[in-house]
Amino acid sequence: MEDMARTEYPAMLANLQPGQAAHVFTERVKRINRVNTEVAEWLQERRRVEEQYVQSLRKLAQFKVPNGQTELSVFQAPWNRIVDSVEAIAHSHHLLGERIEKDLEHPLRNFHNRTDAQNINTMASNLTAMARDLEEAQDRSDRLSRKGGRANTQKVDAASSRLEAASQQWEAQAPFIFESLQALDESRVNNLRDLLTQYQTHESDQAQRTQDHAVQTLALMLEIDTEREIHSFVNKATAGKTRLPAAPTRTSTRQSSISGTVSSAPAPPSTAGSVSIHPPSIQAPPDDDVSEHNSVPIEAKPGWFN
């Protein structure tokens, strides 16, 4: 809009009395300065939050846990990355705080020192003075008009001349002053928009740096091998130690016991070179030895009674 005529603010003059117009103008100038200052104050507090966070992170980086005596094994590399990333993240947040102060806070605080901002304050004073002169001239002319023919002709002419001059000055300068205010306001809005956009860019950049550290650490975490940890512990626990003989099992112990018992029994005498001894023959008992009361009946054979 720099190459185009700014008509929106000057058009308000058609709806405002000179005193009202001067008041609106002055309040708008105050608001321009107030908004910039309040946003700058908020950014200052935001920066202080970053500074406190940086201090806490750096304190955490010095907190050595686990201690040097702790065996981390497969967790050693990921844990080192976690600890190292704390300092890197602290530096990233420190950088964010510096950029908030330099790129955002200072420009907002110095906006009122710009030439166009200084000029608008002078214009506000001039506009207020012109509005006061015009209203006073109008009031003087109205009072003389109410007197009618009783009013002094010279005073009436002087009042009319003063009113005309004040009106011409107002009509000539007030639109230009309001146009200048619109130009400054547009510049202020664009400046604040650009600065807050830059603020979000700085926030995004910082978040991306933190994300990059997290991704790198996560990659190491995913490489942790449980089997490797188990085997590593076994190897360390048994390194340099001779394998112990196998302990006897229950079955082998029983077999050994039986073998010992058999070997301890006396062996039968040898029969080599001696007369063979036949076992005695078993003769049937005589008939009278068989009792009639014997529980085993004697089976009759054919021919016994023939």
Automatic annotation (TrEMBL):
Write out the biased-composition intervals (Basic and acidic residues).
Answer: 135-145
Quick one: a GO cellular component term? cell division site
Superkingdom of this entry's organism?
Eukaryota
Q: Where is the composition biased (Low complexity)?
A: 259-276
InterPro entries given in the database record: AH/BAR_dom_sf, FCH_dom
FCH domain spans which residues?
A: 26-94
In residue numbers, the region (Disordered) covers 135-160, 241-306
Locate the compositionally biased regions of type Polar residues: 249-258
Pfam families xref list: FCH
Biological process annotations from GO:
septin cytoskeleton organization
Protein name (Swiss-Prot/TrEMBL): FCH domain-containing protein
- Which species is listed as the source? Cylindrodendrum hubeiense
